[in-house]
């Protein structure tokens, strides 16, 4: 005898409607997607045991691997996949502390509940980012998505995260790891460097700034005596203590203020980082940011991996794997992202 069709859950619909109304009233974009609960991952026997009195103590522990990400309803599907990939490939997943930064106008309770429902065991905190702190400094760029205030939150991590967090790995939401994040977190920063990231010194560095910048000696001389190379800010190891001591948030803001007056770049939050840090970072092996898989910022065409080994795949650029998969127009490498997708389909059909 065939099974009866699933009963429509009116109460669930009512709950989702109420949540959407609350979000709309708060000016937030509601989360309409539902996600599956991920498997729990456990430490290997060689992992140190972190003993703390409470959750706040864990989120401050120097023994934990601290990971910072932004969190919003538009990219939450990518964020969930990124978190799963970090945990799945970690030898000590229970020793990872996640620090999620969300817009102050977002429904933090709903974002927190979404993370908890898929990762009920996760050690994490959600921090509110005041968009107004940076929105006055943002100039329009070549792609509107780059103008989102939350895209600039990486410049404010030292202010947002507790002062007890001394080092953090920052990750974008459109990537997955296929290696142990502890290896990346352990990158040595030397005596003076504030951050580490994969460098690309074969890129045309002049492309990232306008002729107005290069024709002004007062501005262009900022790169004098620096072997400035492009680096992608979607994957960075940051010494937050040194960042705070050097007041680097203010230095980035100063360049953004100049941009508002003179239009010295076109690409959103990346150029201020290059102006402050390019030529002064610790280079990381390229395997830790196989970036550009989303194509360029105009067409989002399919791209191949760079030569060499892979520890992290990054769909930076216009095309996102979940959007291309949903549209049934995936790029070949999108198949590498799909196994980490926790999206719950609306109905389960029995065979």
Automatic annotation (TrEMBL):
It is an enzyme of class 2 (transferase). GO terms for cellular component: Golgi apparatus. Its main location: membrane. Residues 1-27 form the signal peptide. SUPFAM superfamilies: Nucleotide-diphospho-sugar transferases (SSF53448). Its EC number is 2.4.1.-. It is a single-pass type II membrane protein. Keywords: Glycoprotein, Glycosyltransferase, Membrane, Signal, Signal-anchor, Transferase, Transmembrane, Transmembrane helix. Pathway: Glycan metabolism; pectin biosynthesis. GO terms for molecular function: glycosyltransferase activity. It comes from the Eukaryota. It is found in: Endomembrane system. Pfam families: Glyco_transf_8 (PF01501). Belongs to the glycosyltransferase 8 family. This is Hexosyltransferase.
